[in-house]
Specification:
The complex is a heterodimer of chains A (136) and B (396). With 136 residues, chain A is α+β, with helices and mostly antiparallel strands. Chain A is 18% helix and 29% strand. In chain A, the strands form 3 sheets. In chain A, strands 2-3-1-4 form a 4-stranded antiparallel β-sheet, covered by helices on one side. A two-stranded antiparallel sheet of chain A has the order 5-8. Chain A has a two-stranded antiparallel sheet with strand order 6-7. Chain B is 16% helix and 31% strand. Chain B has 7 helices and 22 strands. Chain B is α+β, with helices and mostly antiparallel strands and 396 residues long. In chain B, the strands form 4 sheets. In chain B, strands 1, 2, 3, 6, 9, 14, 15, 16, 17 and 18 form a 10-stranded mixed β-sheet that branches. A 6-stranded mixed β-sheet of chain B has the order 20-19-10-13-22-21. Chain B has a 4-stranded antiparallel β-sheet with strand order 5-4-7-8. In chain B, helix 2 crosses helix 3. Classes of the chains: A alpha+beta (136), B alpha+beta (396). At the A-B interface, loops of A face strand 2, strand 13, strand 17, strand 22 and helix 7 of B.
Chain lengths: 136, 396
């Protein structure tokens, strides 16, 4: 089983297509949606993880492209700027998954593990130094 | 026993033995107090965190024709101009003009005085907009221009209260989120906020102000500065442990230095949702090891420094004096503590990482003969409390 994070961008006319339904029903993929903005008559986006066999994910993405939806490989939509981070630790109790972490309690330096981030954006709200920002 | 003069002579000869307040702990444990007091000349202490009582005096020089500025904004942040013609004071917590503050609660407070100070030190361009009523000798009534710190005659940081000796730990016992200056506090004691460099913090390494006094040379955000006065709300008379270390706020320092010599990494604007803006400042203070007693105080460890846990949903606002419990900085830094039988996650506003970096930088400057120590010209008060404000009727 593979897991792949992708960003779908919908043209304004396309927001009513039940893309996720087809990914689950026709391709038997596990879909985990992190963020979405789907507004009628505007461009929309969907940021999600697809889990399934590699070739099935590739087939599914080909189908999505044929439906005129733009597909991009995506990193997570949360950016942690190491230069701006002062390692104060204010974010630590607000990060629900430990993506923002203090591995060494002697130096108290903060690290960020994107693979654990669920993009709840709590850190964006609480960071006093603007080190966490959302790409969307 | 050593004197300031002997230590400065060793610094000049680049032979001074300097350790950080963290390194000195193990050194004394290995060598013993007597040997270490002979070996070590200076211990460097440091802290980095939001210090709201910070700001700076700026002098713009005179325009053509001259203008006696009576109202002014830098990047839309109001500065105080009730002093001489082209002098202003820019305060860390001033909001940007038209910031909705907490109108749409909790406010974001993305930009204010602290951020203007950060931009200044980083050498970025800023906008000055100024107004005046006009006088015979200062006819100009309005100006808008752009400048960087290099264009200013003086940019002197003057912080009325920095380096709180110790500080409250904030927790929220209510069932609603609290937006405080110690962070966002989730309901039902889900998390807590603290702010101190603990065993690295300057006044925790000199709890009775035996070496740190008015006139002491300090490292303020990379610039050589000094203590110009006791800090506001300096209240040394308080509950202290057997080691003389305060278990509440206690002492504070008024600090000043030339902003043109500061390093941008240690002057950072702060946004606290639902609360406001501030400025995080890095401070390093060298402690001369004049005798064994002074050395012993610098060997303080996080586990021996306690802070008071206060309910910021009620007891802080109404100054009830209620303390839920005391926690050591060793426990606070571990990430999880127990308060009233409940496990609570800890968050900090002060950066220990940055404090370590500053203690190391100051150590290197002293070792390289670039930073000398000064004897205070007056001690800080050792017996004093801070008064509250009484709201009363006018005396007839």
């Amino acid at each position: 089983m593979n897991r792949k994070r992708v960003l779908f961008t919908f043209p304004a006319a396309m927001v009513e297509q039940p893309i996720v339904y087809h990914l689950v029903k026709d391709f038997d993929l596990q879909v985990n949606i992190f963020r979405a903005k789907i507004t009628p008559e505007e461009e929309g986006f969907l940021l999600l993880d697809l889990t399934g066999p590699e070739e099935v994910i590739a087939k599914a993405l080909d189908w999505v492209r044929r439906e005129k939806v733009e597909v991009k490989d995506s990193e997570i939509g949360l950016r942690w700027d190491e230069e701006l981070c002062t390692s104060c630790g204010n974010c630590i109790p607000h990060c629900p998954t430990g993506a923002l972490l203090i591995p060494d309690r002697n130096t108290m330096k903060i690290t960020f593990d994107p693979s654990l981030c669920v993009e709840c954006l709590s850190c964006v709200t609480v960071c006093p130094f603007g080190a966490c920002s959302s790409l969307f | 026993m050593k004197t300031y003069e002997e230590i400065n002579a060793k610094i000049e000869a680049r032979k001074a033995v300097v350790l950080t307040a963290e390194e000195i702990i193990d050194y004394v444990e290995k060598k013993g107090i007597a040997q270490a007091a002979r070996d070590v000349d200076v211990v460097t202490t440091a802290t980095f965190g939001p210090m709201c009582s910070s700001g700076c005096f700026l002098n713009f020089g005179h325009s053509l024709p001259r203008m006696r500025i009576t109202e002014a904004w830098i990047d839309d942040v109001l500065v105080y101009s009730g002093i001489a013609a082209v002098d202003v004071y820019l305060g860390a917590t001033e909001l940007r003009h038209n910031d909705p503050a907490n109108t749409y609660y909790p406010g974001e407070f993305r930009f204010g005085g602290g951020h203007v100070i950060e931009k200044l030190v980083a050498g970025k361009e800023l906008q000055l907009f100024a107004l005046s009523y006009g006088t015979d000798d200062y006819p100009k009534k309005e100006l808008r221009t752009y400048f960087t710190i290099k264009d200013l005659n003086q940019a002197i940081m003057v912080n009325p209260r920095n380096c709180y000796q110790n500080y409250n730990v904030a927790i929220n016992c209510s069932d609603k989120t609290i937006y405080s200056y110690l962070g966002v506090l989730k309901p039902n004691m889900e998390n807590l906020g603290y702010s101190s460099a603990g065993q690295l913090s300057p006044l925790l390494n000199d709890p009775l102000y035996k070496t740190i006094g008015i006139g002491t040379r300090v490292w303020l955000a990379g610039a050589p500065g000094h203590v110009y006065a006791e800090g506001t709300q300096h209240s040394p008379t308080c509950q202290r442990g057997d080691n003389d270390v305060p278990m509440e706020g206690a002492g504070t320092l008024g600090l000043t230095a030339d902003m043109k010599k500061m390093k941008p990494d240690f002057v950072r604007g702060v946004s606290l949702p639902g609360y406001g803006v501030s400025l995080a400042v890095g401070v390093g203070i060298p402690i001369p090891i004049l005798n064994e007693e002074i050395l012993k105080y610098t060997t303080i460890r996080d586990r021996d420094i306690y802070a008071a846990v206060i309910d910021y949903s009620h007891d802080y606002q109404y100054r009830t004096g209620k303390v839920l419990c005391h926690l050591s900085y060793e426990d606070l830094k571990s990430g999880s503590v127990t308060v009233l039988g409940k496990e609570v996650k800890t968050g900090s506003l002060s950066s220990y990482t940055k404090a370590l970096e500053i203690a190391q930088l100051l150590k290197e400057e002293i070792q390289e003969g670039e930073f000398f120590l000064s004897r205070p010209i007056a001690p800080l008060p050792r017996e004093q409390t801070s008064k509250g404000l009484t709201i009363r009727e006018e005396k007839k």
